[in-house]
Design goal:
367 residues, globular, Rossmann fold, binds S-adenosylmethionine
């Protein structure tokens, strides 16, 4: 983990507090504009999140919120980039020293990063998560680790692993007979939500894949530093080199919305191919739009238009369970639900000050 100076730490705290103010203090008030003006004006068209978002953007208060949130996102990356720039070589050296004891790291320099990751600066992070600036680079991973605390407003615990902890607990509750020998996490980035599966299923071999080499180097070093054995691979989830039927549990956390309409069916087919009979596929992302009212769905407009996550407004409208059926899962063996957040149960903060509302949505299917 990169170490901040006093001023960098203070700047980060300011950025995190402003994020809480925007999310828990100001955003809930904007619903009043919708109820009083937009909803009556739009009438029947009201059901469409895009139309609602467009109408909401006409109000100065909404536009100010968009501007402040966007500036705060850029502020978050500026603080961490300045912090990491000064330590980039020592971080790479430390990462190397922490590597190679537990689990493994397999990079593939020939892997082509998909266009949906390389053609825009995802989350407004310059260079996205895959760009490398030097040999043995871990900067993108270090930056992810540093910024997710600010982004999640501290609501996912000191190791930012609350989604993994909560979903692993939910899987154990829902599938008490599942005793996975091999577990695969798709789009694992720095493995923050992969490691909880190694704890929850100590007899299983845990693997994580991602396209980003700097994040995977960091993930491997991080896992070693935390005493966890996980095997990290640089692969595209659309086409993986693992043997058919070689996993009993395939999971992902906030991967789906970063892909594309063409990639998703390929990823689901790969999940189906890799799972053994009776194995479980579970994808956790923000809730689908049919889980909420149209106004709440329209809040995703900021992510899509300002935060370089254009697929969000599409993916949350897809009939995922139908797509699972098309990928060779039985329709009757699909499921969806919410895993209660372990951190939220313990700390009971304002649900608006969590990005997930104190629970993690998931969909999936049993092979
Ligand atoms: C928002 S991050 C998710 C991080 C992590 N799972 C977590 O819970 O914090 C999405 C990750 O998915 C990776 N990703 C996106 N598309 C992918 C693909 N087709 N194959 C492998 N990884 C992919 C990105 O590189 C990025 O690291």
């Amino acid at each position: 983990m990169p170490t901040p100076t006093h001023d960098e730490a203070a700047h980060e705290i300011f950025c995190q507090n402003l994020a809480v103010k925007l999310e828990a203090g100001i955003r809930p008030q904007l619903r009043g504009l919708y109820e009083q003006h937009v909803k009556p004006d739009l009438g029947e068209q009201n059901h469409n999140p895009r139309t609602i978002a467009k109408a909401m953007r006409k109000f100065d208060r909404t536009r100010l919120w968009y501007r402040l949130r966007t500036d705060n996102q850029d502020r978050m990356y500026t603080i961490s980039a300045e912090m990491i720039d000064g330590q980039i070589e020592s971080l790479a050296t430390k990462a190397k020293a922490n590597s190679g004891k537990l689990g493994s790291l397999r990079l593939d320099p020939a892997l082509k990063v998909p266009g949906y990751l390389s053609e825009l600066d995802i989350h407004r992070k310059p260079g996205g998560y895959h760009t490398e600036f030097m040999a043995d680079d871990v900067a993108a991973g270090a930056q992810y680790d540093r910024t997710i605390t600010v982004h999640n407003m501290g609501s996912q615990g000191p190791n930012n692993d609350d989604p993994g902890l909560s979903l692993a607990a939910e899987i154990k509750r829902r599938f008490p007979k599942l005793n996975p020998r091999r577990i695969l996490d798709l789009g694992c980035t720095i493995g923050n939500n992969t490691l909880p599966y190694a704890d929850a299923f100590p007899d299983a071999e845990v693997h994580g894949i991602d396209c980003s080499a700097p994040c995977l180097r960091y993930a491997h070093a991080r896992a070693n530093a935390l005493g966890a054995s996980v095997h990290f691979h640089q692969m595209n989830a659309e086409q993986m080199s693992f043997a058919a039927g070689s996993f009993d549990l395939v999971i992902s956390r906030i991967l789906l919305h970063e892909t594309s309409s063409a990639a998703l069916p390929r990823i689901f087919r790969e999940c189906s191919r890799l799972l053994s009979t009776g194995g479980v596929m579970l994808h956790s992302d923000a809730p689908q739009f049919n889980e909420m009212d149209a106004y709440r769905a329209s809040l995703r407009d900021w992510d899509a238009t300002c935060n370089n996550e254009p697929f969000m407004l599409t993916v949350y409208n897809l009939a995922l369970e139908d797509m699972y059926a098309e990928a060779d899962f039985e329709r009757t063996r699909t499921f969806r639900g919410y895993a209660p957040s372990v951190h939220f149960q313990q700390h009971r903060t304002d649900p608006h000050a969590t990005r997930s509302g104190g629970q993690y949505f998931f969909t999936g299917a049993i092979k």
